[in-house]
């Protein structure tokens, strides 16, 4: 009954290596190079040099599971697995990669990551309690829509770094639009993010006028978009990096013109409107609905011209535009910027391979010497810029490589260490993905508290708090990142006994086992063999082995059928195989 | 070529050597090596476990343990000051029970800092480090529990009730406490996710485990030693031990105590949670934080104190006496205090506001000198005039009583080594 197909994988491997000569003869343009070739050229050279035999390519079922969990954050469905395994085309992996990169949830997973990088943080978002969740959702959607449209990465970042509220819309039109937007939000009807040219929410923080949060924004931009952790230089010259306190302060100055509140202009316009309302009322006419409190993110004029902003490693006479952030962004997005593209490549790499080529992810200057494949990082960053900062180009390059498609099983010579990429690393999925995996595996309906999230998977939610939802504590247990921290300091996912216990014995999770798939399968009158296949495919994304099938059948003989199925499902979701990406 | 792998192998070897028979606490990494090394150096440490009674909101320690009978009435307040078992040391009248055992306690009357805000103030006192957006420090509970050897079938760190900033910080969620809400009135507890619910019988859990082991084997057999697999395997074993031993459930079951003991602690929230804390420590937990709220008395301060203090006084007295009678006080450090004190001057609403410039901490056991009093505040209670000390110093002292240097290095989950209390100095004056 084993349906894992070593034949196909072997064939793919052979074909892949048969293509090798082509790689070396390929033209300069990335489009002409077989996908994945950049990665494999570097990795193969290194492994040859070390005389390390890489692990075999992973099976089709494991490939599909790994791909699905990392690109769209969901387990593959049993039918997807069956179709994929039965697909006779030799290029089916590449086509599946393309398909999942176009999937609707692909952008949601990226948006969740962007929310972490930009600090979509419930605690620091400056907004009324009645609209906070909706704005945090909008924050997520803003990124999601752009990733879905394959907006070049540099343009996405530019619209964050240089964001303001009005985006050159005439003031009166903007006020009208803002009033309508607030009303829609309060009605639980958040507007689309598409028509917001920039993400001013990034600057809409409590107490932004105080010097302290401005510093945090600078630290965040540096960590998230340049891969450089500057925080240490706040109080003293960086102990193991080249940044001085002067570098730090010069960088922070890029952000010291940003304000959140009411610009003098906006204040004037609003008081005019209020005066008009008074006039109307005095004449006995109705002034219409009241004007809600309106605030904006705006840029004040630079007063102190003596100490100007300067980018990292920037020249002393760096030219600054009226809104200094624009010149910062020009510097960041310049094709020869040493950090910007490399940072994104490293972060995407960490997502797909389990760890960055440089760790920590914001150690691009402090830990570059420890990089596992520095030349590969360089080349990928260069080609990423040539591609027009096309995120999907980068993903295709990573996912099509043999390095990414390797099994996690070690052979004697492939070594225990996944760092040289001779095998895949086994790791925990992000907290939101664990929540989705649990729902997929048990078949229970997703409910995350607020009606705003109706019908959402966990990776589509956005906010880092779920008021009134038991999943909030679950997400914390599984290591949801602290978005208030401005560096990549506490973001590693690690197992804990708490996680294990929750899945094993929390009454809410135990109840899930009986109410979803199991109830349906039993009422649909399937036979045991069918149900067992389905259960294994639904949880472990593979068919049961003969031994596993027998153990499950024995369980079914020993007691009431429904209870036995709950037991089998419990046993499946409490395995290491279920809870990891492998 | 494989420095990390070598370190890990070394750590495993060391760990097996050091904690034979006991379940380890955390995942593999350099942290384990540091831990294993540290454990060898701390065989003679005085304290083995800690109960931290956290008074959330900031208690008016002026009315409790540092009365100012000579000050004007707008500072002195309504309460008389009473003599204690230590000559010359006075408490507020509502602390009459703890006053009788003041000679078993150790007072720090000169703790101060400069953050009179609940969240960052709690962060400072709970972690022993000023709040820092670049680094979320672990609570002293998470830190201690991560360093001390765990016992099989029992998690190392519990938090009963509410206590801000009591989590694992940069040590990771694996070091968050096991939180259990204690109802304000006696009522059944929810131990969801901590112990085997009745619906899952022991026999059924056993069958499930056997079946799981069959499923587990096909994947794990060829991957036993790599990546997160060994850590997960260890945690799964520990989880099964916790579920089958039911030590957590038993520790929370106060009905097995005699009525006399339960009356001694009191049926109040403070009484029930401190008694539970003692039972958890007995069952093998290393650090229990007991969060008791209601101390943020901006108005109607005195009636609230008359309601709040007697049950706390009774519970602390019972806890310290009970630990002593059971021979546990020497090895168990009791710590009691909040994020700050309250304004000596009573406000217009008959309340006291936030005041971080002076507060008292009450400690007992764990190798501290009984009856010692460190520091003194001015006659109006505004600020320390002698031996002023910081939350860093208090945390350094706690860590030192557990057998670790205040500059003990731990690793963040991202692998960065951090010295724990870089600004903390051990308060040697109160160490026994």
From TrEMBL, chain A:
Keywords: Signal. The keyword Signal applies. It comes from Roseiconus nitratireducens. Residues 325-555 form the DUF1553 domain. It comes from the Bacteria. This is DUF1549 domain-containing protein. Residues 39-259 form the DUF1549 domain. Residues 1-25 form the signal peptide. InterPro entries: DUF1549, DUF1553. The keyword Transmembrane helix does not apply. It holds the Pfam family PSD1.
Automatic annotation (TrEMBL), chain B:
InterPro entries: Alkaline_phosphatase_core_sf, DUF1501. It comes from the Bacteria. This is DUF1501 domain-containing protein. It comes from Roseiconus nitratireducens.
């Amino acid at each position: 009954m084993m349906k894992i197909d070593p034949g196909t994988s072997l064939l793919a491997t052979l074909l892949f290596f048969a293509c090798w000569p082509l790689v070396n003869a390929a033209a300069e343009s990335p489009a002409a190079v077989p996908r994945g070739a950049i990665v494999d050229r570097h990795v193969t050279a290194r492994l040859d040099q070390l005389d390390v035999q890489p692990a075999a390519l992973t099976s089709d079922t494991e490939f599909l599971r790994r791909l699905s969990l990392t690109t769209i954050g969901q387990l593959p469905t049993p039918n997807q697995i069956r179709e994929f395994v039965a697909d006779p085309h030799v290029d089916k992996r590449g086509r599946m990669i393309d398909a999942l990169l176009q999937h609707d949830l692909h952008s949601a997973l990226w948006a969740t990551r962007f929310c972490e990088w930009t600090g979509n943080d419930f605690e620091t978002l400056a907004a009324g309690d009645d609209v906070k969740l909706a704005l945090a959702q909008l924050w997520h959607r803003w990124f999601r829509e752009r990733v879905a449209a394959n907006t070049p990465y540099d343009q996405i970042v530019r619209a964050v770094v240089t964001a303001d509220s009005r985006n050159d819309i005439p003031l009166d039109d903007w006020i009208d639009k803002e009033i309508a937007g607030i009303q829609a939000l309060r009605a639980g009807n958040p507007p689309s993010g598409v028509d917001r040219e920039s993400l001013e929410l990034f600057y809409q923080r409590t107490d932004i006028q105080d010097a302290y949060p401005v510093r945090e924004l600078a630290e965040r931009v540096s960590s998230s978009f340049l891969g450089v952790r500057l925080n240490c230089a706040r109080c003293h010259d960086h102990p193991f990096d080249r940044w001085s306190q002067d570098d730090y302060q010069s960088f922070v100055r890029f952000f010291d013109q940003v304000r959140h509140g009411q610009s003098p202009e906006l204040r004037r316009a609003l008081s005019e409107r209020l005066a008009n309302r008074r006039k109307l009322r005095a004449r006995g006419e109705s002034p219409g609905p009241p004007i809600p409190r309106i605030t904006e993110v705006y840029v004040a004029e630079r007063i102190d011209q003596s100490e100007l902003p300067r980018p990292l490693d920037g020249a002393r006479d760096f030219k600054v535009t009226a809104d200094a952030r624009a010149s910062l962004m020009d510097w960041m997005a310049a094709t020869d910027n040493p950090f910007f593209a490399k940072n994104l490549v490293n972060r995407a790499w960490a997502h797909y391979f389990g760890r960055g080529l440089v760790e920590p992810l914001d150690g691009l200057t402090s830990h570059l010497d420890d990089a596992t494949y520095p030349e590969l990082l360089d080349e990928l960053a260069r080609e990423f810029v040539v591609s027009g900062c096309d995120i999907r180009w980068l993903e295709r390059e990573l996912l099509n490589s043999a390095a990414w498609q390797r099994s996690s099983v070690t052979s004697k010579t492939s070594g225990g260490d996944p760092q040289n990429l001779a095998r895949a690393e086994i790791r925990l999925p992000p907290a939101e993905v664990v929540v989705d995996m649990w729902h997929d595996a048990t078949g229970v309906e997703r409910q995350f508290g607020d009606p705003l999230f109706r019908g959402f998977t966990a990776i589509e939610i956005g906010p880092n708090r779920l008021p009134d939802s038991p999943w909030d504590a679950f997400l914390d247990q599984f290591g949801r990142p602290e978005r208030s921290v401005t560096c990549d300091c506490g973001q590693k996912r690690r197992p804990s006994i708490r996680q294990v216990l929750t899945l094993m014995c929390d009454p809410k999770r135990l109840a899930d086992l009986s109410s979803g798939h199991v109830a349906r399968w039993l009422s649909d009158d399937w036979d045991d063999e069918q149900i067992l296949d389905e259960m294994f495919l639904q949880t472990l994304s593979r068919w049961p082995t003969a031994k596993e099938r027998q153990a499950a059948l024995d369980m079914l003989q020993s007691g009431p059928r429904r209870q036995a199925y709950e037991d089998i499902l419990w046993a499946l979701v409490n395995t290491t195989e279920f809870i990891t990406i492998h | 070529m494989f420095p990390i792998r070598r370190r890990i192998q070394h750590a495993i070897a060391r760990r097996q050597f050091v904690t034979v028979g006991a379940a380890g606490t955390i995942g593999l990494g350099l942290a384990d090596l540091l831990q294993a090394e540290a454990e060898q150096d701390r065989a003679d440490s005085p304290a083995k476990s800690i109960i931290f009674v956290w008074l959330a909101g900031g208690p008016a320690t002026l009315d409790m343990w540092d009365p100012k009978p000579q000050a004007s009435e707008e500072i002195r307040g309504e309460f008389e000051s009473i003599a204690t078992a230590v000559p010359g040391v006075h408490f507020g009248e509502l602390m009459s029970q703890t006053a009788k055992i003041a000679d078993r306690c150790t007072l720090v009357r000169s703790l101060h800092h400069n953050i009179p805000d609940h969240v960052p103030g709690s962060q400072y006192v709970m972690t022993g480090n000023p709040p820092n957006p670049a680094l979320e420090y672990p609570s002293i509970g998470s830190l201690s529990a991560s360093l001390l050897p765990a016992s099989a079938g029992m998690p190392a760190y519990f938090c009963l009730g509410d206590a801000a900033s009591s989590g694992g910080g940069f040590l990771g969620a694996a070091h968050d406490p096991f939180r259990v809400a204690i109802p304000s009135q006696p009522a059944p507890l929810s131990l969801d996710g901590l112990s085997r619910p009745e619906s899952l019988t022991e026999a059924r859990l056993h069958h499930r485990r056997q079946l799981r082991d069959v499923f587990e084997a096909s994947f794990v057999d060829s991957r036993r030693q790599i990546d997160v697999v060994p850590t997960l395997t260890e945690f799964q074993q520990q989880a099964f031990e916790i579920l089958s031993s039911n030590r957590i459930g038993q520790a929370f079951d106060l009905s097995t105590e005699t009525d006399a003991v339960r009356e001694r602690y009191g049926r109040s929230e403070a009484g029930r949670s401190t008694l539970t804390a003692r039972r958890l420590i007995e069952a093998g937990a290393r650090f229990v934080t007991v969060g008791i709220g209601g101390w943020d008395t901006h108005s109607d301060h005195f009636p609230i104190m008359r309601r709040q203090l007697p049950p706390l006084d009774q519970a602390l007295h019972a806890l310290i006496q009970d630990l002593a009678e059971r021979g546990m006080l020497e090895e168990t450090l009791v710590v009691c205090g909040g994020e700050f004190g309250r304004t000596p001057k009573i406000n217009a609403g008959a309340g006291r506001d936030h005041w971080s410039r002076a507060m008292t901490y009450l400690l007992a056991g764990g190798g501290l000198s009984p009856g010692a009093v460190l520091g003194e505040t001015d006659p109006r209670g505004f600020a320390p005039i002698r031996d002023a000390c910081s939350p860093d110093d208090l945390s350094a002292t706690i860590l030192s009583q557990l057998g670790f240097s205040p500059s003990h290095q731990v690793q963040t989950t991202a692998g960065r080594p951090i010295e724990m209390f870089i600004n903390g100095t051990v308060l040697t004056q109160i160490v026994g």
